[in-house]
Design a protein that fits this description.
Elements (H helix, E strand, L loop, with lengths): L4 E3 L2 E3 L5 E6 L10 E6 L6 E6 L6 E3 L7 E6 L4 E6 L8 E7 L4 E2 L3 E5 L2
Length: about 110
């Protein structure tokens, strides 16, 4: 069993920034591609960003391109999502996931509001 723990969410004003982190004690991040998803109330879960196994390839939802950056730190076994120029429509619960395994975290709430 792998336990993923997200952190870094919170309340931020439009235009602000947050950095989300995802840690999994005892799990080797370098072995799998990983992703960030989000889900807002009443909406379907959306794939926000994905990073390849070795971290050399990334993909983003059109809605966050140019504003969000996904990264893996293999030495720290941590996945990050840097979110800049946040908009109210970015408000959601954000989850990290290990692709191909079904493992995902409990989520961290991001609220963008003035």
């Amino acid at each position: 069993q792998v336990r993923l723990v997200e952190s870094g969410g919170g309340l931020v004003q439009p235009g602000g920034s947050l950095r989300l982190s995802c840690a999994a004690p005892g799990f080797t991040f370098r072995a799998f591609p990983m992703s960030w998803y989000r889900q807002a109330p009443g909406k379907e879960r959306e794939l926000v960003a994905r990073i390849s196994t070795n971290g050399d390839s990334t993909n983003y939802a059109d809605s966050v391109k140019g504003r969000f950056t996904i990264a893996k730190d293999h030495a720290k076994n941590t996945l990050y999502l840097q979110m800049n120029s946040l908009k109210p429509e970015d408000t959601a619960e954000y989850y990290c996931a290990i692709e191909g395994t079904g493992y995902k975290g409990q989520g961290t709430q991001v609220t963008v509001s003035s």
